[in-house]
């Protein structure tokens, strides 16, 4: 009994020790965050569920502002959190640009910023965040082009810039981002050609560049993206024919090509894929439905011809029979052709 009591006590103590997480930790860095969190300056932000601290440093911030809880700009002092690895920042009442000071957060692995009044340009300084794996800046009102420094972020797995007002060309340097799994830059105003170097990004699973102003042809190199699952090129100004190389994309689940100026017909290699294909609103494209309607018209004509021939033959046969019957009845007295039941009998 004593031993059991002893074991239970040890079990409870060990459990208690392990459940002591480091929420009691404090960080001087809280001074940069407490205004944002709407707390007094002495508040220990490491206790807040939105913040994670380690060894007296803030390492994670996940802030989702309800409509009226914070109104202001993204504080540039966040750039002082040199151990920050994860920053998620969402707020519809946040106004103004991304402070260039965020380029000092060189431990950052994940950066998400979204707010319908966040504007300005994407700071060149973000190109210094060399550990960055996920960069998501969707649904803001950023203008200008993607700073060329971003093509140095070779650890990037996910780049999301969708639904902004970005413009300019996508340079061949995009091909540097060999770890990219997801590229979503849809619903902006990017123009120029789709760089063939995109075909080098062999880890890519999602490529969404729809709703821009890309022109020129679809590069056949996209057929090298053997892991691609979603390819959305719709709503651009793409011309030329659909490259049959896209038929190599055996993992593709959806292929969106609608609302372009594509021509030619759909390559048989693509029809063979087990892929949902969206091709509407390409006036010059010979689509399957056109082919189908041509085929169905042909079938209808053929059926009509067969029917007509059938009727004609049947009519002729009937006429012949009637004529024969008339002859037979006229000759009844002389010759009986008889019927199936009776063998012909010659009347002498
Ligand atoms: C830390 O402890 C608090 C209360 O003791 C608990 O609510 C919280 O979930 C714990 N956090 C982790 C990461 O264990
Ligand atoms: C608490 O933090 C210290 C370092 O500050 C660390 O060594 C220790 O493992 C942490 N304890 C828990 C339960 O996470
Ligand atoms: C925090 O950052 C600002 C601007 O980047 C800088 O002026 C200030 O000296 C920094 N403060 C500390 C304590 O590092
Ligand atoms: C960003 O939005 C604010 C508020 O609407 C405006 O005052 C400011 O001029 C805008 N900045 C840019 C660079 O567009
Ligand atoms: C950060 O980037 C800016 C502009 O791209 C550059 O001028 C600056 O030297 C970089 N800072 C560091 C510390 O690398
Ligand atoms: C990319 O990184 C290299 C080496 O770190 C540097 O020399 C170059 O200036 C960077 N390019 C841009 C556009 O920031
Ligand atoms: C980062 O991006 C990768 C690739 O798209 C994705 O699998 C992963 O879930 C993302 N991480 C986070 C924390 O969102
Ligand atoms: C998009 O960019 C083109 C130039 O490539 C420009 O003429 C057009 O006005 C832009 N559209 C919008 C909505 O900004
Ligand atoms: C990337 O693709 C381009 C054009 O498709 C090709 O010329 C180049 O050699 C490729 N670069 C690498 C590093 O594979
Ligand atoms: C694509 O658009 C650019 C301007 O944005 C133009 O210079 C170029 O000639 C166009 N290319 C094609 C093939 O239409
Ligand atoms: C990529 O595709 C192009 C054109 O379809 C082809 O010539 C090239 O050899 C491919 N490159 C690789 C690395 O598969
Ligand atoms: C698409 O490109 C053609 C020329 O290639 C041009 O005449 C037309 O204005 C472009 N359409 C749009 C919406 O940019």
Automatic annotation (TrEMBL):
Protein name: L domain-like protein
Matching SMART domains: LRR_TYP (SM00369)
Pfam family, one: LRR_4
Keywords, sorted A to Z: Leucine-rich repeat, Membrane, Repeat, Signal, Transmembrane, Transmembrane helix
Source species, domain of life: Eukaryota
Signal peptide: 1-19
Transmembrane segments: 294-315
């Amino acid at each position: 009994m004593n031993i059991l009591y002893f074991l239970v006590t040890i079990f409870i103590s060990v459990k208690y020790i392990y459940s002591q997480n480091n929420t009691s930790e404090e960080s001087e860095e809280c001074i940069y965050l407490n205004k944002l969190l709407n707390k007094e300056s002495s508040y220990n932000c490491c206790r807040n569920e939105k913040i994670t601290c380690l060894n007296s440093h803030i390492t994670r911030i996940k802030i989702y502002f309800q409509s009226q809880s914070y109104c202001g700009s993204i504080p540039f002092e966040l750039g002082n959190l040199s151990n920050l690895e994860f920053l998620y920042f969402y707020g519809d009442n946040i106004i103004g640009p991304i402070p260039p000071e965020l380029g000092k957060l060189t431990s950052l692995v994940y950066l998400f910023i979204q707010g319908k009044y966040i504007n300005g340009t994407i700071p060149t300084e973000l190109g210094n965040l060399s550990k960055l794996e996920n960069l998501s800046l969707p649904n803001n009102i950023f203008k200008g082009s993607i700073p060329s420094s971003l093509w140095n972020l070779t650890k990037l797995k996910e780049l999301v810039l969708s639904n902004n007002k970005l413009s300019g060309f996508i340079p061949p340097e995009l091909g540097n981002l060999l770890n990219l799994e997801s590229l979503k830059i849809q619903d902006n105003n990017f123009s120029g050609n789709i760089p063939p170097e995109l075909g080098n990004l062999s880890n890519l699973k999602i490529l969404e560049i729809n709703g821009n102003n890309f022109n020129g042809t679809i590069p056949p190199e996209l057929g090298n993206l053997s892991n691609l699952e979603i390819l959305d090129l719709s709503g651009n100004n793409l011309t030329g024919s659909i490259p049959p190389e896209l038929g190599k994309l055996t993992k593709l689940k959806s292929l969106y090509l609608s609302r372009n100026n594509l021509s030619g017909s759909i390559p048989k290699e693509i029809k063979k894929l087990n892929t949902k294909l969206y091709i509407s609103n390409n006036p010059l494209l010979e689509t399957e439905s056109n082919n189908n309607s041509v085929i169905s018209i042909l079938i209808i004509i053929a059926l009509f011809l067969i029917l007509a021939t059938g009727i004609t033959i049947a009519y002729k046969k009937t006429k012949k029979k009637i004529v024969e019957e008339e002859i037979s009845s006229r000759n009844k007295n002389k010759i009986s052709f008889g019927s199936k039941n009776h063998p012909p009998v010659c009347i002498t």
